[in-house]
Design brief:
Length: about 180
Amino acid sequence: MPSCGHGTKSSFQCHQMSMQDVRRIHQKYYANADLESKKNYILQHVAVSSAKRNRLPEGQSRRLVSTCYSLPRQRQAITEHVNVCRKAFLGVLNESRDRVQRLCQKYLQLGVTPPETRGGVRQAEKYELKRTAPIQSHYYRGKNTVRQYLSSQLKVKKMWEMYLEKHMVENLQVEYEFC
């Protein structure tokens, strides 16, 4: 239940929410486990607009987004949306203020639900082409192989620089730590 403390004379109608309403909201919000459906549910119940007043000097605005929160309330098979405060909205959905605020800011910038950005390219995928590039194995010992030894003046850094020079066009550049 919302514990914001807004009374009957407030413009927020948090006190009108019943435990049954909160249960229905939870069932609808947590019906799907994916984040995309949760983002859509939040954006359906939040009115987002750019902040109209800026109390700080030019270019120093802290608040970029103005939000109005509402939650569905059902009475005799009629569903209506009631305005609630941020504390009640976040408490009912059990979400953090920062997550909802970031979601609203990105929605205001893009105009659509922001895409999921988690799980980008990992180092293993980044260097996969370089790992699978055809090279002759040093374990191969054919019948007609002649052993060759490296010069004692040849260091790992020098071999890395030689590799970079040889593979400049093939886009197989690697960092020194990859050696």
